[in-house]
What we know:
Layout: E1 5-11, H1 27-31, H2 39-57, E2 61-63, H3 71-76, H4 85-89, E3 103-106, E4 116-120, H5 127-130, H6 133-143, E5 150-152, E6 168-171, E7 180-185, H7 198-207, E8 215-219, H8 222-226, E9 236-239, E10 242-246, H9 253-263, E11 268-272, H10 279-285, E12 291-294, E13 300-305, H11 306-309, H12 312-323, E14 328-334, H13 337-340, E15 350-355, H14 368-381, H15 394-410
Parallel strand pairs: 1-2, 4-5, 7-8, 10-11, 13-14
Antiparallel strand pairs: 1-15, 3-4, 6-7, 9-10, 12-13
Bound molecules: N~2~-(3-carboxypropanoyl)-L-arginine.
Residues 20-23, 26, 29, 93, 95, 98, 100-101, 129, 166, 230-231, 233-234, 342-344, 348 line the site of N~2~-(3-carboxypropanoyl)-L-arginine.
Amino acid sequence: MSKLVEINFDGIVGPSHNYAGLSLGNIASADHRGEPSFPRAAALQGLAKMRGNLARLGVQGFLLPLPRPNTPLAERLVLDGSEDPALRAAPWSASSMWTANAATVSPAPDTADGRCHLTPANLVTMLHRAQEWPDTKRQLDLAFADSAHFAVHDPVPPSFGDEGAANHMRLCENHGEAGVEVFVYGRPGGRFPARQHEQASRLVARAHRLDRTRCVFVEQSPEAIDAGAFHNDVVAVANGRVLFAHEQAFAERGRAYDAIRAAFPPLEVVEVPASEVSLEEAIRTYLFNAQLLTLPSGGMALIVPEECRESASVWQYCEALMASNGPIREVIPVDVRQSMANGGGPACLRLRVVCDPASVDSRFLLDEEKADGIGQVIAAHWPEQIDPRDIGRESLARDVIAARHALLDALDLSQLA
Ligand code: SUG
């Protein structure tokens, strides 16, 4: 029997979590710009989500916050107080919490050499995110060090923007069997940046040595990007045979579904019509930025943000979905409001890796006891509140660095300091 299972590696929200409004095209980030943030609450919300999924699935991983403030970047930016506050905030960003953007992952059954391939995302479209990959790669190199099972690549070279798993979906009969990988790219020219470049997607597929007949390249709809769906995972999510997508997720949707079905005939599309949930409401509530999980019982559950339950149209749709005979039988809201206010829902906060848990460095795998320990470190060390005016202050820098070090110590991962 295959030992391959899907493990969700959630990003632990870092102690510098703040609302600096750095992401053009991400409406939540722009709307909350300048507001105080609550890093401790944010990290505890993320931890509670992890605990819920650990209980549901029996397995859960995590990745650590990256070193912030990023002093070498701050030095290169020659920050002297005269600069734009957005520039000052970039080295402080806790954006690595959204591990769906950490890498693109092709599980072993999909690749020519039978190893799981990971390519860290270069995230070159935005400065605060482009700084992530070297530290992300260090962490992936450690967590997935077993080269009999994993290959960790270098990122795609600039200027081809790569946003990782947020623009990648996988369809399969079972997680441990060969799947079909769907890469979703954007075309530039709209009012917001199209962050995923087609050539980046194609390069990743080649580097991972995927079977060409089991890869599909699909264009994200320009209207979705213009409405604020800066990543495909804001308007679509896949799991097993199921593609759950908004009607306006893809450019030429009929052709997109046909191309996916040609590579993966058992495809089941659960499409949400705009007449039931508008694109704007889908983006505001992040209905599609959900974790679509196969439960041990075999059924699927959709882990959605609490914001979905508060929206009349979205919740009405979810209730009908649960009552239907379709593949998604449960919709479970979770509170990740601190992350949501920066445009990161339940799906942004996790990187899916299909692998044998025994092949992963166990320091990156969660159990109840470790969750308690992480919770204690967060409660004791994470700042309760950050006012954007505090960004850049020496005393806050000291607190943020010390908080991260306390976590690394508790997890025996001081080598990432
Ligand atoms: O890249 N927000 C992130 C949100 C990433 C969501 N990820 C996925 N959809 N997979 C982004 O836009 C906001 C940071 C700020 O404004 O300070 C930010 O980077």
